[in-house]
Structures are given as C-alpha cells and as structure tokens.
Amino acid sequence: MSSRPARFDRGHTDDLMSFLTAGPSPYHAVAAAAERLEKAGFRQVLETDAWDAATSPAAASGTGGRYVLRGGAIIAWYVPEGAQAHTPFRIVGAHTDSPNLRVKPLPDTGSYGWRQIAVEVYGGTLLNTWLDRDLGLAGRLSLRDGSHRLVNVDRPLLRVPQLAVHLDRSVNTDGLKLDRQRHMQPIWGLGDVEEGDLIRFLEQEAGIDEGEVTGWDLMVHAIEAPAYLGRDRELLAGPRMDNLISVHAGTAALAAVAAADGDLPFIPVLAAFDHEENGSQSDTGADGPLLGSVLERTVFARGGTFEDRARAFAGTICLSSDTGHAVHPNYGERHDPTHHPRANGGPILKVNVNQRYATDGSGRAVFAAACEKAGVPWQTFVSNNAMPCGTTIGPITAARHGIQTVDIGVAILSMHSARELCGADDPYLLANALVSFLTV
Ligand code: ZN
Fold this sequence. Notes:
This protein is about 25% helix and about 25% strand.
C-alpha cells in the first residue's frame, strides 16, 4: 500500500476536518472558531458593552485578542503592543454559510403516510446532491426568555428520496429535473402529521422544556464525515468547504499570529460573515455595518478621533478568502483555456475586471509577496469569457468600507454540492499564506 509523502502538515487538515464536522450551521461554525480563539487567549467582547478601558472589564481598548459574535458572524482582532489609534488593519475576510435546505416556519408536513419536513432552498445549492443521503439537522433555537441554544442532530434523521429509475425512464438521457417545492421535502418517518412535532423533538434533543422554543433557524446537513480520498490520499472530500476552509484557515492564522506576539505595524483581523450565499445583505452579512462598526469602535476605544479612523481605514488591506473552481477533468472547456487552477497547486488569486472580484494589480502584488515570504506556491483564476463569473464578499467589502481588497481562496471541485472536493494540502498552504499576510 502506498502512503502519501509527508510534504505538508497533516495536522492542519485533520483539524479542518473536525472544524467542518463541528460547523453544520453558521452558528456552530462561529462557535467552533471562538473556541479555538479562546484557547489562543482571545476574549469575547459584547457589542452592548462600553468599549473604553475605564468602563469595560473586557477592555477592548487594550492589547491582546478580542472577538465579537453576532448570529452566524464573528469579527476577531489582535491588538499588538504599541498599536496606536490610527494603526491600520490587516483583514482576512470569509463567510460562514453554505448553500443547503432550511426549515420553513410551519415545518410539519407529509403525504401518503410519510412524515416530512417543509424546507426552503438556501443559496445556489446543487439540488441533486441532497438526494439519497443520510441527513442531520442543526441550527439555533430561540427561547421564550430571549436566550439561544445551538442544536445539532448529527445522525441519520432525514432523507430526500430520489424517484426510482423505473418511474423516471428518461432521467439518464434527458437529465434529472427537480422542482424546488415538490421534490426537495425530506422524509423523517411514518405516521400522521402532527403540528409542532419537529420542534418538540428538537426540544427533547437539546434538553429544553416543552413549549420554551418560540423561534428557530434550522438547516439540513450531510452527516458523512470528511475523508481523505484518492490513490495517495492527496484529496479531501467533505461538506461546507465553501467556505469553512477559509474560516478555519483564517482562525488558525490569527491564533498563530497572536501566539507569536510580534511587533506588528497593523492590527490583524478575522471577519467571517453570514449570508454570503444570498448576497450578504443582512445585519450579519458583509453588506451590513458589522465590520465597519467593530473596527471603528476599536479605534475610538484606543482614544482615536474620526481622523484616526480615516487614517486607519486608508491603510487597511483585506484578503477576502473564498473557494474557487479547480479545473474539472471532464469539463475542461468550461474553464479559461490558459488558467487552470490545480488541486494542491496552492491558493488561487481571483481576478475579474468587471469587479466580481476586487483584485487589481496592486492587490496581486500584496498576495504574491505574502506567498513568496511563506514559500507557498499560488495560482490565478479567471473565468472563461462565455461563462458568468461568481462573486463573493470581496467587492462588497471594498465598496462598503473603501478598503483595498484582494480576492483569493482554495480551488475546489463540486462547489455548492452537499459534499465538495479539494486538494488535501491546499487548506494548509492557504493558512500559511494568511499567516504571512498577517505578519508581513
Ligand atoms: Zn463561498
């Protein structure tokens, strides 16, 4: 049996696999990021507290690591010794959400003796990838007293059954046609439909008294664990790689920079937003005020003025990290003829002159310098002119805050599938590039 040469640190990828499993919803993903940051000495700051040193025990004005959690978003930063009010930021941006199926307000439904859960389609998911998989259910429960609890049923609970080929004779020649309303409702048992059944079940799962849950944000996830794949185990298969690879790498990089406690001329930041998959317009999305509000408050907490805030933002750079498309062996013609990102070829720089990506030549030079310093190979991605280009939080961050932004990421296959695929080395290479960016 051949074993894979130990070219890169498997520890990072092993930890990523735990992170993917721990993050079936954006709420779980930010909790997993916060747990890692706490271990690295970061402390949570509440947005509702005063942030000046005199009044807040959290002392957001002081040196060290802090983070803010809001719903499925996290903003974390590390203030080095000697930071001034006008010290600029170096930001790693990412998003915590992934396309999936989400529970409707009246979830209990069914037909012909099957109990089903009513779901909406979230983001641009590949619908067919949810068929015939063992699915779990996870998310946030909101209680009568105003508190929230996370719930994660991480065992086979649901299934969206595909129609048998005998009843759909042309499926293999004409393709699978799925109606988002009629064909995507998972089954979860047998018997009569009972109103309130799902929420009562989840109250039991979470150890909450019956009737206490009055709100919920719940979503379906594929429960199969991430796995190394391939002849030499050089690939990684798993859920939510778009974009928990970046959230994980950004968290690891920020923790590493804090541990090194170097003399930095900027304040390293991780900004991981929710709702990227449907356009980022929410109070926890990149098109909301969250990042700007947090960064401004850190400036003012250090005694800064509006002038200091303007100076800090003008000197700030953001690396917006999100997944991109690796060249597909069976569909090479869909890619640009000369730009072919490869798995394990290192992180990709994403370019689109129409500003679907925020990268320009100056940003390219910033990324090139970070990779060069880290000894990390990197590649470029640009769309085939005949294909519409995707987008991400990069252009939004650039436009909303006036911050120089560079779009980068990891090249994967099967983007927006319930189970995606990447090179097993690329997440580690990305993390190394991010550490370099946050310390250059
Ligand atoms: Zn993404």
